[in-house]
Structure to design on (687 residues):
């Protein structure tokens, strides 16, 4: 018999915790959830106050029996699943299966997997928090209502296998709405006039930009307006009319929360949200470090709080002052955002002394990159502001004003270590401005008018979509990555060079949902529902009431939609391809493997065929047309239309680009080298 049985979620976490606890202790993993709603039926008893009908997850019978045996052989069982709502719910399910009283002090949580944190948690167990558990149950049941009641509408009208989700459908809506904005956008012409001037002595050139007339800002929209300004400047003198000097401070960004970590990892490392969370999970659960053994390197990675402990603050201070000097340290506290749950600290390194370079050899390349990002962001968040000397100069030419702005870095501060990234390029209008005096005359070197056009709003990236969802209060730290992963997997959107673009299927599904369920699939309603779930977690609202308030109006809308859509025929996009059998213009439909052409005369005419995309570059082997096809994982490859009849050409690379490919690793995901003969490529590509 063992003194203590500790149940965690993953084997990696179990291995890390084992080394911190002496005596007769056993640490085992539940491998995530062990109970859930059934997949084969609705699983929520509406008549019995929306009670969920949980079942043991298929395939986990032997694990459950093993856990029961371990619990029977232990004097005390501790449930140490992750410190969030999901982890609390898993602990509650474990307590039910293992026969542990909910009011028993069996629940332990730690924000970081360090010796002190784990030992403190074991010494101070608590009851299972049913408010957190109920919030998770409410979310699960709400998602079941939407998924199991709305999805069949999509099956009937669009195609089998589609799904609707409260948060994922809003994410698709945002992407579709943005695409419509881009399509409807009408560019507007505008002009800038750049002036290159110089001091007379010593001769130093710098650039100024047209501002306006008589101190008022003027926008230039046409070439004619530019010509009038240039004509009036022909004999002008360029005199410095105003100089403003000041000092500007730039403060560091706060330590990471889940969403900001995902955004920065996307911008700076090119990581997908899913990859970021997987790598962060490994860093949290533990890595083997020389002289320390298995140790968790970062705090819990699902958080929306920028709070850090006093101990971490003290350690950061000592590190900064020893590495950079006292003038580089500033004790900073960051205010949590309005809807922050503040249950955990921000994401930070657990040991400040474990600098990224010191443990680089103990980490994979991806782990090192993300750890360095987290480490530097945290240390920088406790550093002094960067200080700039700024100068703003106004140059008068007849009645016109030109302005030049310059700044010089005076003290680097936190920028010595870390600078926050941005989703899009920022216009930098700063220039190197020499020492000038008011009323000083300058020499005109060149005037350069430039025509530009306003641009549409940019498409979302994973990073900017997470930012938008967060700002609108939609979803929570644990939901961002799975939401975007799901809508990509469903084929509602696609990712092209980091940009998220709606596919035709996503547009069709979005239109159907928004038109028929406007009160369910909108940003305000979804954000309000998140707030109610937070209220449940805080013990302010009973979860049954939240479900009831959602279900009663939802049921009425659902019945109405099902009746109305019964006789509505979905309008499909018409192609320019005639049906060979009946002559009707074929339409685009969606099947198991994506978009295809089908005759609108179905079921009388059942003609259907795949959509073949081609390129203009001919086959390098036989000169025939080259087709673009996709693997099951949606990866493009190129194949001759005569393959396999009379030509064996097939390649990952577009014809003509193959000579440009420097390394096979950049063009194929397999670890083997790409064969030189394209005839062997067919063995590499799994359709």
């Amino acid at each position: 018999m063992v003194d203590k049985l500790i149940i965690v979620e993953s084997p990696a976490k179990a291995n890390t915790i084992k080394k911190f606890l002496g005596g007769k202790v056993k640490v085992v993993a539940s491998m995530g959830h062990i109970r859930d709603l059934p997949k084969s039926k609705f699983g929520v008893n509406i008549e019995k106050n929306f009670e969920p009908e949980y079942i043991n997850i298929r395939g986990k019978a032997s694990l459950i029996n093993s856990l029961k045996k371990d619990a029977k052989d232990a004097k005390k069982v501790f449930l140490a699943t992750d410190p969030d709502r999901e982890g609390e719910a898993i602990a509650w399910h474990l307590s039910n299966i293992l026969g542990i009283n909910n009011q028993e002090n069996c629940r332990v949580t730690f924000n970081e997997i360090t010796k002190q944190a784990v030992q403190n948690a074991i010494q101070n167990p608590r009851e299972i928090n049913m408010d957190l558990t109920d919030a998770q149950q409410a979310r699960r049941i709400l998602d079941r209502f939407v998924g199991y009641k709305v999805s069949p509408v999509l099956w009937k009208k669009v195609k089998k296998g589609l799904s609707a989700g409260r948060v994922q459908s809003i994410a698709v809506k945002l992407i579709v709405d943005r695409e419509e904005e881009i399509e409807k956008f009408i560019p507007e012409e505008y002009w800038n006039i750049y002036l290159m001037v110089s001091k007379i002595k010593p001769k130093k050139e710098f650039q100024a930009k047209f501002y306006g007339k008589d101190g008022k800002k003027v926008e230039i929209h046409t070439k004619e307006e530019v010509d009038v300004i240039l004509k009036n400047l022909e004999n002008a003198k360029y005199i410095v009319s105003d100089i403003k000097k000041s000092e500007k401070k730039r403060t560091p960004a706060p330590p990471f929360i889940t969403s900001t970590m995902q955004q920065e990892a996307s911008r700076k490392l090119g990581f997908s949200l899913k990859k970021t969370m997987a790598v962060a999970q490994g860093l949290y659960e533990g890595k083997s470090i020389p002289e320390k053994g298995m140790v968790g390197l970062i705090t819990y990675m699902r958080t929306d709080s920028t709070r850090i402990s006093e101990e971490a603050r003290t350690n950061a201070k000592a590190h900064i002052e020893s590495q950079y000097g006292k003038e580089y340290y500033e004790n900073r506290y960051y205010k949590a955002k309005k809807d922050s749950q503040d249950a955990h600290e921000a994401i930070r390194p657990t040991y400040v002394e474990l600098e990224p370079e010191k443990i680089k050899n103990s980490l994979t390349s991806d782990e090192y990159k993300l750890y360095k990002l987290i480490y530097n962001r945290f240390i920088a968040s406790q550093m002094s502001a960067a200080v700039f000397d700024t100068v703003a100069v106004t140059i008068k030419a007849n009645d016109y004003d030109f302005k030049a702005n310059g700044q010089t870095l005076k003290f680097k501060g936190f920028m010595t270590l870390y600078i926050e990234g941005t989703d899009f390029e920022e216009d930098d209008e700063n220039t190197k401005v020499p020492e000038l005096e008011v009323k000083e005359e300058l020499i005109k070197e060149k005037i350069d008018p430039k025509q530009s056009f306003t641009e549409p709003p940019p498409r979302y990236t994973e990073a900017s979509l997470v930012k938008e969802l967060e700002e609108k209060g939609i979803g929570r730290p644990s939901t961002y990555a799975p939401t975007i992963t799901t809508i990509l997997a469903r084929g509602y959107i696609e990712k092209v060079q980091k940009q998220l673009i709606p596919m035709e299927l996503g547009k069709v599904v979005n239109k159907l949902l928004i038109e028929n369920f406007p009160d369910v699939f909108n940003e305000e309603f979804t954000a309000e529902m998140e707030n109610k779930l937070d209220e449940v977690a805080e013990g302010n609202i009973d979860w049954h009431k939240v479900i009831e308030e959602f279900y009663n109006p939802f049921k009425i809308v659902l019945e109405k939609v099902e009746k109305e859509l019964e006789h509505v025929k979905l309008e499909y996009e018409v192609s320019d391809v005639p049906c060979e059998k009946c002559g009707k213009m074929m339409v685009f439909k969606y099947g198991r493997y994506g978009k295809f052409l089908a005759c609108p005369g179905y079921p009388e005419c059942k003609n259907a065929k795949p959509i073949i995309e081609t390129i203009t570059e001919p086959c390098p082997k036989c000169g025939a047309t080259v087709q673009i096809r996709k693997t099951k994982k949606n990866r493009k490859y190129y194949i001759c239309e005569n393959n396999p009849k009379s030509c064996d050409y097939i390649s990952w690379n577009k014809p003509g680009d193959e000579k440009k490919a420097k390394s096979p690793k950049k063009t194929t995901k397999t670890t083997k080298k790409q064969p030189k003969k394209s005839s062997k490529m067919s063995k590499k590509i799994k359709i």
Notes: The chain has 17 helices and 26 strands. Confidence is low (pLDDT under 50) at residues 661-687.
